[in-house]
Fold each of these.
Amino acid sequence: MLSTWAVVPTCLPLVRRRCHVCSADRFRASGKFRVNANHKVLDAWLLVLCTGCGDTAKLTIFERTHVRTVRPALLERLHANDLSLVAELLQDTVLQRRNHISLDWEGAWRLDTGGSDHLDQEVVDVSVRFTARIPVRPVRLIADACGLSRGEVERLIAEGKVVSAIRLTGKVSGDFTFTLKR
């Protein structure tokens, strides 16, 4: 029997970046954009707020870009402060590299197992799907969903009772499957 689990975001992740005012290391997305026009060039930023002092910082989306190269739909979403665009941009690896940031997903996601009827099976095939690129340890997912400790899951992996085509230690952020044998 194949069970499908989904890793689903519950809110926007925090942004890891050092605040120049209070030295806190987390910012939250305000959901607001700033677009500045200077003749025929545009600059756009995503505004983030320090969790320590509330100071505003700007994450560069694009700068000194000719207005004709910006898609009208994107410009409209920026002006409308589209929250789904905020989520898309935060996960953009180019934006993360350009702004020297990373995301903190702690407490910003949940695991949807679709019920607990899979727990009493002798052999369970599980397909884990990610609706966003959320780095999670597979050991933690299996432990939380099956009501086991992480140590027990690691022991089951070592004994070959939990098998997968991917490495189950470390973090993953893409879809994978595994088999649990009891």
Amino acid sequence: MSEERKNWFRNMATKEKVEYIWDYYKVHIITGILVIYLLGAFTSSVLNRKEYVLNIAFVGKYMDFDRLNEFSKEVTKELIGDPSGKKQASIDFYGLVKNPNGNFTLDPASTQKLMARMGAQDIDVIILDKNNFDILASQGAFLRLDEIKELNLSGLNVAKVEEPSNEVKPGAYGIYVRWNNKYLKNLGYDYNDKIIAIMANGQHKDLAIKFVKWLLDVK
């Protein structure tokens, strides 16, 4: 074999080398690039994944979402305090709209989302209106607060279930949020006459109790 044939690739011009490599190895090159991209994306998602260890739901007529985002950061800092930033509080708003009878009710999209998250045990604390509280409380959705030793209810206006049923026993299942609450008054949220309750099937009950005490300034 002649030296010329041995060195055929070396003797090519740069453009010819690039064209040759692309023509014969483009499938391998594209596959390699995709593999590297997917591995990078997967690694990034794992490293930056957030773990929501306290899930809070607000139900109301309006909310300032910029302030709600800042409130979420404050809750994370005060109650979770994870320096890595991976463990956080998640706060969602579900809107009430006026129905043909003039009463406020959850809009269909909010109803569907809220019910799905409740069913998935993905809400720990909820702040909501009396009407929706009564409906959910009668179905056993909330934790009974007067049985929680670390939660002192004296001096608080509690929301009770008076009539026993198969799902729930009489007792205190919610607390009315006081007017001029120092955390909620700056949210642009209609929190007056709202009730805060802890979900019975929530996965982070200790943090939920801690949040209620912090929000209501319960010692």
